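Folding Task

Wanted — backbone structure
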Amino acid sequence: MSRWTTAGLMTTVLLLCGCGQLVRATSDFAFNQPWNDYRRIEVQVRNGSVELRATDVTDVRVSGRKSVGGATFAEAEENLGKVTVEAVARADHPDTLRIEVNYPDELRSKSVGTDLVIQIPQPCAANVHTTNGRIQIECMAGEVELGTTNGRITARDITGTLHAKSSNGRIEVEAVDGSLVASTSNGRITAKGVKGPCTLGTSNGGIQAEEIEGDVKAETSNGNIRLAAVPPAGGKIDLRSSNGGIHATLPENLAAEYQLSTTNGRIHVSLGKAVMKMIDSSRRRFHAIVNEGGGTVSAQTTNGSITVESR
């Protein structure tokens, strides 16, 4: 059952009427429904945030706030009744629960927005997308795909593969028992405690990844890269920045071919007791076979220094 927030409605009218814009109406909502041992959950939202977590509940619990505009307060209130939040099993995949916001096409120009908070009783695979808003997800298992055009993505305690993509917003990931692919056009990426290969990319922002157990590919156009990883035998580390420094901490006994280069900066290598067969070493280049090789470590930047050290 929806609950109207009258004070919020009055505040919105005062703020927007003077500007000649839409008057907005807002309502809180909450509902529960049975959990039918779903294996996957899909969430589709336009203009709003999504929080999803598996927690100590026995059914599906959906709550949040919806809002919409109108030429008058009465019209906005009427439009609000046309915005529905539904949670139903997909007809073609009954093991998938789909939660989505629906409204008629006539409201597409009325600035419809919906924020969702979803709680489910057990981890499962997830596909969550919103056009303008943040995504926060916790305790999922299986294939997890997250996407937003404008907003931050936060994910933690994921067992399985995680794909996270934002056009404008930072990405923060912690505790993933599986592979990670994270990309954003504008924002910082941080990843901690990933037990699998990582592919991280941003156009404008730094990248920080620590406690990584797997191959790593990290690339940014503008920003620093900082990595602490334990790649597998024969693994690959590939770090690239156009404008920013690179700092990598790797195991002393890592067997790999190292190739490091910078155009404007210096290279510092400190690998403890590692056995190195030097091929090329200068202020801006370093090429060596370390511990008889096997894997590869590559780091390249145009403007910035590169530091590689052993833990």
